[in-house]
Amino acid sequence: MPRIIAHLDMDAFFAAVEERDRPKYKGQPIVVGSDPMEGKGRGVVSTANYKARKYGIRSATPISRAWQMSEEARKKGFPPAIFLFPNFKKYEKASFEVSKIVSKFSPLVEPASIDEMYFDLSPSVLFRTHPELVEGMSFCGNYKKAGSICKKIKNKIKREEKLTCSIGIGSNKLIAKIASDFKKPDGLTVVEKGKEEAFLENFPIRKIPGIGPKTEEILLRHQIKLVKDLKKFSKVDLKKILGKLGDDLYYKIRGVDDSPIVEKYEIKSIGEQETFSKDTFDLKFITGRMVKLSESVFERFEKSGFKNFKTITITVRFAGFETKNRSRTLAKPVSDLKTVQFEALKLLSPFFDKRENPKKKLIRLIGVRIEKLI
Ligand code: TTP
Ligand code: MG
Questions:
Q1: Domain range annotation of the chain
Q2: Sheet of 269-280: strands edge to edge?
Q3: Residue 261 alpha carbon to ligand 1 centre in Å
């Protein structure tokens, strides 16, 4: 049965929520991330709104660099960026409200991250649950109708949540995902059945999910820049160049993907990290921050709707960026703050002695995450 799948991705999500909730910053360039400390801050940018992106600021830009870019813009007479800390509880709430709106239009919704979701608009699915939405729609698939449903979804999100999003519609998840990114922000892109290959051909290869910086580098060495360059290679050739990934890619670049929509709520973990303002080996300070981070993570867990968890994971990043994760999975599920704090500190303590840190390297960042949520 042919499918019609949509992918929705919120625009500049964290920054858009902040801009909505703080009217005094409306229309200003906004950067959500760690404290820039007038250019001496050491974390990174979570996201920047589109005004701040004009200054070159992006997700994962070092916050010190973002500050410099804002200063350069200020010197040219543009408004400097407003730097704000992330407030995950607010973003989780907005994300939940958006998925509630989408659920009114489709019975099959897959939350894929905090700001994106896939949903099924196939007539065969909607006929069963939302007959009013598919009146006059034929079983062979009607992309116009799917487009008009998505317009309604976008309007409702704008009206009720005061946020914009971009949606892509296609015959599978892969095409929908690439299409949602095609006209950002506030875009709607429909790729009808049969038009998938033509749609993909002129994209740079990095747009294909699964092609990261390393694969891109390998392919560039073979003069492959665009999807259409990649299409000249046979399946056997691609396998020779890229191994198993080559096999997958052969189909992806032809728009073929039959992965299903997975309905379950996909939060896999709740966690937070903190980059210290200075690399440190101060036991009292670091354990104090770990206790606080655990509290903050636990508060979010309490609001998440999950009842228990089984795994606690910590992250330690040394001054030289070497990063270690350590986990403990408990025999029985738990749901209390004391356990998170106790286990996190127990996992952390070897980093203060020769068990995990014989050279007494300074610590740059710590994080804590709870996983196996039930
Ligand atoms: P994205 O959807 O990748 O980015 P975005 O919503 O900010 O912007 P766009 O309009 O291009 O979709 O990520 C969603 C949120 O996830 C983003 O608002 C902040 C967070 N995030 C990080 O914290 N760090 C990162 O490196 C990225 C990519 C995202
Ligand atoms: Mg987004």
A1: 5-13+88-196, 15-84, 203-252, 269-371
A2: 269-280, 363-373, 309-318, 323-334
A3: 22
